[in-house]
Automatic annotation (TrEMBL):
InterPro entries hit by this protein: PDDEXK-like_dom_sf, PDDEXK_AddAB-type, Restrct_endonuc-II-like
Keywords for the protein's UniProt record, in alphabetical order: ATP-binding, DNA damage, DNA repair, Helicase, Hydrolase, Nucleotide-binding
Source superkingdom: Bacteria
Protein's UniProt keywords contain Acetylation: no
Species of the source: Streptomyces lasiicapitis
Protein's name according to its UniProt entry: Recombinase RecB
Pfam families: PDDEXK_1
Amino acid sequence: METRTDDVKVAARPASLSPSRASDFMQCPLLYRFRVIDKLPEKPSEAATRGTLVHAVLERLFDAPATERTAPRAKALVPGQWDRLREAKPELAELFADDGAGERVAQWLADAEKLVERWFTLEDPTRLEPAERELFVEAELASGLKLRGIIDRVDVAPTGEVRIVDYKTGKAPRPEYAEGALFQMKFYALVVWRLKGLIPRRLQLVYLGSGDVITYDPVQADLERVERKLLALWEAIVLATETGEWRPRPTKLCGWCDHQAVCPEFGGTPPPYPLPVRAPESGADEQGRMGPG
Ligand code: SF4
């Protein structure tokens, strides 16, 4: 069911789960509501936009013949990809609206080039021939839950073994937080397994911010665990959707949240809930207790 709230945004029941939205709900159910149901606008951030730009450059580089996939060539792609990004998303212009002399954008582009350059210390694209880049995947579990996402790169060895690769422009997490980082990769592995009946041999996170590579070789039990976790998460999301009970869960990550002005934890009032609700029942207590493990 959809409810038109104004000319642009349409509130809708959640229909599928992606790794980012699953992480949103685990971080803060109210943040999930603001993003998925209310679809409140968020300001573009320099860091996230730089991530998008670097991803685009790494993807496009594979258009060139293997021997020409060099660091100078990759860095040379940065300005053109930035132009394309701005054309596709005119709202990005506001990022540097107050940067009359262009110094900030120049530094920002130089930082993007550094991240691109660092990639060459971690992987050698002249020896890679990805089977897929920026691959949209979607699988429906037996329960009807749809999982979807975009995988940065899929490599397939001559033996048929599959490696899923994701680029991160930030720094690698400390070991105690690695499980959270791997959650996204296990999510993708589960989708690939359900789609193709094949468990990826390796999951690889490439951290361009710190120059680290984290790998994990999943086994069936890992993916079954993630599937159970996602089903429980989805049940909690469906319950919250029906009852309209989306609890704020304040953490230090609130500092990055665009919605403090409408968050009760910061003295704000959320917009009227745009979907029909039913009374909550006891047992609706799963929110905020879900970790990525
Ligand atoms: S400010 Fe914090 S508690 Fe409030 S919605 Fe954002 S993440 Fe959740």
